[in-house]
Amino acid sequence: MSVREINFDGLVGPSHNYAGLSLGNLASSRNAGAVSHPRAAALQGIEKMRGNLRLGLAQGIFLPQWRPDGAWLATLGTDISNADPHVRAAAMSASSMWAANAATVSPAADTADGRIHLTVANLVTMAHRSHEWPQTLAQLRLAFSDTRAFAVHGPIPAPFGDEGAANHMRLSDSHGAPGVEVFVYGQSGGPFPARQHVEASKAVARIHGLDPARTLFVQQSQEAIAAGAFHNDVVAVANERVLFTHEQAFADKQAFYASLRTLLPSVEIVEVPASAVSLADAIKSYLFNAQLATLPDGTMALILPSEAQTVPAVWTWLEQMIAGNGPIRRLIPVDVRQSMANGGGPACLRLRVVADPKDIDPRFLVDEARLDEIARIVSDYWPETIAPDDLSDTRLIARIEQSWLSLVDHLQLSGDLMP
Ligand code: SUG
């Protein structure tokens, strides 16, 4: 069995738009009302996946969800023609593209029954994301249907907010070795909602059968949430034995680092000091919302948003880091600007699964030829632009539905995923 890390990227859906729906996500608020470019957004995401393949990484894909979500609107006693504008926008959101919020994943080496466990995130804090989980769960149950290898769990019940892998890190000597799983949660009281609740994190750890002695629950700092770090993956990222983090990411970093060093003596903590990069610059540049990946030659690369190059303090610090002798050896900027304008960087767009690719439904794995086909469908069908007022336009809605049908039909998933 050959276990490796596979990144599943969420393909940007044809309804991608800027409705300003996420309080506490500064980019989403700043760009509210702007004209979006769904076709360019999806093509940017496809190029990112292509880049990963060319680096020798394994790549999977999750499909956009059916929008508008008529089933959800029906539970609210309405439909797309009659819904209030903010409810209509929530029903149209393409937010499932941020696959880091699809689920929390525990690799087989960490779980009591030796299977890979996935719990779909309930995303209850934000209305527009709270209705993602049923369609996400349907895809997880298809992609990871082999119950000898995988256990896929339903959502943690409300009111305990769970935002999935965006608040979960795993450190280990190698992907296949037993790891330390770190669940980062927020505490309410600041200007913005804390979207990950500790009760949800603890429930996920129990359901996955994790060893309590190798599981940490770490509080995110209030300052980080107040500065716009609505998920931990905006201020920290881990890969194998490396933790790359902002100095102010955690409420009690000394206690966290000490536990980590005890549980994983080989850990390397690369901390960016606030004196070099402020929290504000970290959030503007999203330098931590990067894929920290182990390349086939064993070195690590940081696949980060191109915005990081435009914030001088950030780029200067990163260049110094690369010039030194640390574990991160390469910087690879990628253009995901359409997603970034809604607060989603390279790390938000992907869910990491450590598994044997042979155990996964091949319809959810991609190579370059398959990406070419998907790019062709996107170019043929995805709307070029969406302005906020377009969300009530029946022609746009018909086009979004047609785009989705063409894609799932081409990928031979229509029988399984039709709403
Ligand atoms: O949940 N933005 C997403 C961005 C998610 C980023 N994911 C991670 N950090 N892992 C969110 O806030 C904006 C949608 C809008 O305003 O139209 C949005 O949902």
From TrEMBL:
<feature type="binding site">
    <location>
        <position position="101"/>
    </location>
    <ligand>
        <name>substrate</name>
    </ligand>
</feature>
<feature type="binding site">
    <location>
        <begin position="128"/>
        <end position="129"/>
    </location>
    <ligand>
        <name>substrate</name>
    </ligand>
</feature>
<feature type="active site">
    <location>
        <position position="163"/>
    </location>
</feature>
<comment type="function">
    <text>Catalyzes the hydrolysis of N(2)-succinylarginine into N(2)-succinylornithine, ammonia and CO(2).</text>
</comment>
<keyword id="KW-0056">Arginine metabolism</keyword>
<comment type="pathway">
    <text>Amino-acid degradation; L-arginine degradation via AST pathway; L-glutamate and succinate from L-arginine: step 2/5.</text>
</comment>
<feature type="binding site">
    <location>
        <position position="195"/>
    </location>
    <ligand>
        <name>substrate</name>
    </ligand>
</feature>
<keyword id="KW-0378">Hydrolase</keyword>
<feature type="binding site">
    <location>
        <position position="233"/>
    </location>
    <ligand>
        <name>substrate</name>
    </ligand>
</feature>
<dbReference type="InterPro" id="IPR037031">
    <property type="entry name" value="AstB_sf"/>
</dbReference>
<feature type="binding site">
    <location>
        <begin position="19"/>
        <end position="28"/>
    </location>
    <ligand>
        <name>substrate</name>
    </ligand>
</feature>
<feature type="active site" description="Nucleophile">
    <location>
        <position position="348"/>
    </location>
</feature>
<dbReference type="GO" id="GO:0009015">
    <property type="term" value="F:N-succinylarginine dihydrolase activity"/>
</dbReference>
<dbReference type="GO" id="GO:0019545">
    <property type="term" value="P:L-arginine catabolic process to succinate"/>
</dbReference>
<dbReference type="InterPro" id="IPR007079">
    <property type="entry name" value="SuccinylArg_d-Hdrlase_AstB"/>
</dbReference>
<comment type="subunit">
    <text>Homodimer.</text>
</comment>
<protein>
    <recommendedName>
        <fullName>N-succinylarginine dihydrolase</fullName>
        <ecNumber>3.5.3.23</ecNumber>
    </recommendedName>
</protein>
<comment type="similarity">
    <text>Belongs to the succinylarginine dihydrolase family.</text>
</comment>
<dbReference type="Pfam" id="PF04996">
    <property type="entry name" value="AstB"/>
</dbReference>
<feature type="active site">
    <location>
        <position position="231"/>
    </location>
</feature>
<feature type="binding site">
    <location>
        <position position="342"/>
    </location>
    <ligand>
        <name>substrate</name>
    </ligand>
</feature>
<dbReference type="GO" id="GO:0019544">
    <property type="term" value="P:L-arginine catabolic process to L-glutamate"/>
</dbReference>
